[in-house]
Amino acid sequence: MNIQLKKLRTSRGLSQDEMAEKLGIKTSRYGTWERGERMLSLKQAYDCAVILGCSIDAIAGYDPPVSYSDPAQAALNGYWESMNDDGRERLLGIAELAADSGKVRVQKNAGDLRVPSEMGRSA
């Protein structure tokens, strides 16, 4: 298994000491996990995933393949994955404007699901 703890930890700006403190363990124990000297239990992997804001799959280095039947959707997802938070927010705004509001049932906005305002209005 290709444990990705160090990569995930550093991408979140955490030190080994900070990670160990959040887990309630010694830094030396945490370091053995990053170096692959000791394996994590499922509970330990879960705790790390919660702290790092990722899945256990990500910690294990498993990146499940995503497939799209529509090449345009695949391209749009590629753009989304390469954007920073500001770019994603702008793209959501553009998508909301471009959507045919009569056909949109639920849209994702700022991390929550909501019914578009047009849908809740009486004609």
Question: What share of the residues does DSSP label as strand, in percent?
Answer: under 5%
Counting H and I runs of at least 4 residues, what is the number of helices?
8
Q: What characteristic shape results from the CA principal axes? A: elongated
The third-level CATH topology of the largest domain is 434 Repressor (Amino-terminal Domain)
Unreliable stretches, pLDDT < 50, 5 or more residues?
109-123
Helix/strand class? mainly alpha
Order of helices and strands: HHHHHHHEEH
Helix proportion of residues, in percent? 55-70%
Mean pLDDT: 82
* Overall strand count: 2
Please list the strands of the largest sheet in the order they lie side by side.
1-2
Please report the distance between the alpha carbons of the first and last residues: 57 Å
The CATH homologous superfamily of the largest domain is called lambda repressor-like DNA-binding domains
The oligomeric state is single chain
> Can you tell me the CATH class of the largest domain?
Mainly Alpha
- What Rg do the Cα atoms give? 20 Å
CATH architecture of the largest domain: Orthogonal Bundle
Number of domains: 2
How would a crystallographer describe the biggest sheet? 2 strands, antiparallel
